[in-house]
Design a protein that fits this description.
280 residues, 5-stranded antiparallel sheet, 4-stranded parallel sheet, 8 helices
């Protein structure tokens, strides 16, 4: 009989606790774990970049730590796509070269600088605006990665779970401003939760899945498949004028609530069920 466990990236992760509870499985400790490997064990790795020697013996690890690490560090994430032209077009233009950044600024383009490579919710982000630089100057100290700012009509999060060898389940949501938030005080460059933004499956009374541009779903799915993940939430922005979508990141420990909790638990339950006992 299969034993299934969940390894959280942090002991306080609410999403990890919700998924484990709904699946009826135990969470593994990050320190002083008493887990001992048995043949046939399955571990759902919820965003952890490190598994101990016993955990690494599991017959199946949903999201191996090396793939989680490739998503957790922004520079490593982009490097997975930059080496090939057809893949490079999937992600937002990025560079570590300050000369390239200067070219972007000379073109009148805003640039997003990142001082933290493994962060979330907009932490460590600096916006370089060519219109303000002559008066305010620019401080790039501590910035290690730059991305070209892409004007966007909408931002989406597409959740994927691989439930079989050739089957992937998906759930689409769109980032929207919470009702009641003062729009005059909103930071439209960095649309994070603290700034009043949330993800919703229905916008304006219509399901997002009925309105999302085909290119948004296509680039998200291609990026997910390229990284060989078992599950993850792909953040995508859409520029309507160019009819072009860009992947920003893939979260291997996404925040969950409501319908997304049921989506992950149902899909992961199916994935576990579909694993044959004799496969290694």
């Amino acid at each position: 009989m299969k034993r299934v466990f969940l390894k959280p990236y942090h002991r306080t992760s609410k999403s990890a606790r919700l998924v484990a509870s709904k699946l009826g499985i135990k969470r593994l400790k990050l320190k002083n774990s008493k887990y001992k490997h048995r043949k046939g064990d399955i571990i759902i790795n919820w965003g952890s970049q490190r598994l101990n020697s016993e955990e690494l013996k599991a017959r199946a690890i949903f999201n191996p730590p090396s793939r989680v690490e490739a998503c957790s560090n922004k520079e490593k994430f982009f490097s997975q796509f930059n080496h090939r032209h057809n893949l490079r077009e999937l992600v937002v233009p990025n560079t570590t070269d300050e000369d390239v950044v200067q070219e972007w600024l000379n073109e009148g383009r805003k640039v997003v600088g990142r001082k933290l490579l493994s962060s979330h919710s907009g932490r460590g982000i600096v916006i370089l605006d060519p219109e303000k630089i002559p008066d305010e100057g620019v401080d790039i100290e501590g910035i290690s990665l730059y991305t070209k700012y892409i004007p966007k009509k909408a931002e989406y999060r597409i959740h994927f779970v691989r439930t079989g060898f050739e089957r992937i389940e998906s759930l689409i949501s769109q980032k929207v401003l919470r009702s009641g938030v003062d729009k005059s005080k909103v930071n439209w460059h960095v649309r994070n939760h603290d700034g009043g933004f949330i993800f919703a499956q229905n916008v304006g009374g219509r399901p997002v899945v009925d309105t999302v541009p085909d290119k948004v779903f296509a680039v998200a799915r291609t990026a997910f498949l390229h990284l060989g993940l078992n599950f993850g939430a792909v953040d995508v922005i859409y520029n309507e004028r160019k009819d072009k979508a860009y992947v920003l990141e893939i979260n291997t420990a996404p925040g969950l609530m409501g319908r997304t909790v049921d989506f992950y638990t149902d899909a992961l339950r199916t994935a576990i069920k579909n694993m044959k006992a004799d496969r290694h």
